[in-house]
Amino acid sequence: MARNRILIVDDEPAVRFGIREFLELHGYEIDEAESCQDARHIFSTSRPDIVIADYMLPDGTALDLL
Question: How far is CA 24 from the centre of its chain?
Fold first, then answer.
């Protein structure tokens, strides 16, 4: 069975690390991005099932990712 893929978008590495560690313990595959631009690149190569995003990012907001 395929594991669910989650994209974490946050400009703080420590926040991404903490969320990643927790979710990997529960069997999720994780991608990380630190900006809207990075997140869009990941969208072009893989399709996450869920996105967890900080609202304020260096190059926009989480709403810009919609």
Answer: 13
As a whole number of angstroms, the distance between CA 18 and CA 43 comes to 22
pLDDT digits (tens, 9 = 90+) for 10-65: 999 999 999 999 999 999 999 999 999 999 999 999 999 999 999 999 999 999 99
The answer to whether the beta carbons of residues 30 and 4 sit under 8 Å apart is: no
In the numeric block, which tokens belong to residue 46? Answer: 């893989």
Residue carrying the six token digits 């400009």: 11
**Total Cβ atoms within 10 A of residue 48:** 20
- Does the global pTM surpass 0.70? yes
How far are the Cα atoms of 1, 9, 47 from residue 58, in angstroms, in the given order? 36, 11, 22
